[in-house]
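RETRY 2/3 - previous attempt timed out on the joint model. Re-submitting the same 707-residue input unchanged.
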Amino acid sequence: MAVHELGLPGVGGAIAEDRISVASQRQLIWWRFRKHRLAIISAGIILMFYMAALAAGFLATNDPQYSDAHFNLMPPQAIKFMDNGQWFPHVCAMSGQRDPLTFNKVYVQDCNTKIPVEFFTEGYSYKFLGLFNTNRHLIGVGEGYRAENTLFLLGTDVQGRDLWSRLVLGTQISLTIGLVSVAFSLILGIILGGISGYYGGWIDTAIQRVIEIVRAVPTIPLWMGLAAALPREWSVLQVYFAITLIISLFAWTDLARVVRGRFLAMREEDFVTAAKLSGARPRRIIFSHMLPSFYSHIIAAVTLAIPAMIVSETSLSFLGLGLRPPAISWGTLLQAAQNVQSVANTPWLLLPAVPMIVAILAFNFLGDGLRDAADPYSN
Amino acid sequence: MLTYIGRRLIYGILTLWAVSIVSFIIIQLPPGDYVTAYIAQLSMQGSSLGMAEADNLRVYYGLDRPIYHQYYLWLQRIIQGDLGFSFEHQKPVTDVIGERLFLTILLAFVSVLFTWSLAIPIGIFSAMRQYSLWDYVFTLIGFIGLAVPNFLLALILMWIGFSVFGFSVGGLFSSEYISAQWSLARVWDLIKHLWLPVIILGTAGTAQIMRITRANVLDELRKPYVVTARAKGLSGWRMVLKYPVRIALNPVISMTAYVWPFLVSGSIIVSVVLSLPTVGPILLRSLLAQDMFLAGSIIMLIGLLTVIGTFLSDLLLIWADPRIRLEG
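RETRY 2/3 succeeded.
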């Protein structure tokens, strides 16, 4: 492999060769990965998403479940940081009026009344990281929910709930549901793909046929059917896990194929034969000899599988068959934008699509970078 | 070749069998049997069912028999084309979804054509001009196409259509043709409405096939036979289209077998968003109303559609790839 391919900082020729020959696999992977700019940026974005999900209560400005018909379908309020050249973060007050002809509610911005936006201010009470109660928020307008004192960064939904706060909280479910579904799929994929690739022969053939059949199945109708059959009285948590199980039931095949391919390639390697000849049992061979040499591939495959899981959950919830209120996810939020009228009149309800697309793209780029880095010896 | 067809046929049947079991499980999952559910629905509408009639229905559906016998009865009826009766429309399910099924197939089929006719030329072009501006542009579009889920693309296009062009998209027919007889004018109306859902449905598949075509053609272009052909004086495009592309296209054709279930699946959600008269909205409505018997039958039909489509694309591969044709 050419030295420059690894992107070693400021080294040339012999020294670099030396560094490569003594570098551990982990280092090689890291050097390779570092070269993939887009993947690095994506990793940063994903990290930010998960941090936002952790600190959702802190970032939220209003109680996400609090609804008030006085504020329904209010357009977003933009924060202005300057006032006459002075540092004064504020939003303009909004007031709702009825259109005398159509009786539709129209919000009028009144920029003479400025509502100051404060940092680290007090607001509704929530549990920080699930550990202790607090009412500190990153930003807020002090006394919330008074007609002249509102802060709706992304506007409100049809029940007058703050879309920004709901979006931040929805991130928790949408981003973890991908992880949990991938975990379930990974278990199935490693077991079946591993057996298939390690033993080969008729077992391999049988499992491969099963994979082919599962892949030929139209997933969305089956997901819809299974999700609709979940009992209505189940709690949010039960539905959450049921949905992840339903999704992974048909989504494990890609991971199984990756695992099997790796096992097949690895089976012929000398060190595996050596371990076999030394009398190691399959369990030991698989877990201490084979798995460590391709876990990087599995991590890459898992990263690439996550966005598909996120899309599946969002699609199901969007159709009203996935998570149900009071659970908040990107899918349940987008449900509000299901028809032409709402999209046309209240386009901000489409905003949850933005973080979703960003997250999916980021996971894809990160997965691509990881996949390239997973095998640092190839070109 | 016959062994190959036979094997594919058996996979198809096994797939159908798997789908039928899941569909039947879906029918069985809600508490109580479906005759009870039917009675409950009737009483909600203000009418009722006598004990004797209810018992008759139970015998008809084999509810007094063991579960495997119910499954057998259900499967037998489906094979005979009896899908039951729709409460909502007050006519046999077959009548309700007949045309919708046809439109579902049409939508998915046109999407496949669209995907191919766009993805393959672009893929070849990108490979020929690797790292050019257009290559990057198409790569970017491809990534976005993969990242934006179908239903979201539908919503966004709907919003753009409304706010920029001021027309509302949706449906497959103008209002005057919705329940009209088939005529040339109606077909033309359909074509005028079909392009948008086709673009929405086809984007993800186009992105995927574009990437695969590009990678395959690139692999082939590096092979010695291409260098030899060039050295012997065969000129650019003609040579590329004649040899490397032909080889590179085989994996693309076999991809269709995987893209097809994906398209049929996707058309369900897109149809709901754009309110297209396909089986999608009916499936959703029956699921939300917990009319599992109807839903199960529709899911089974979608499975059948998928299997037939997959089988046809397998046949296409036989036609395209002589190695499969001449083997065994």
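Residues 1-5 of chain A have pLDDT under 50 and may be disordered. Closing ticket.
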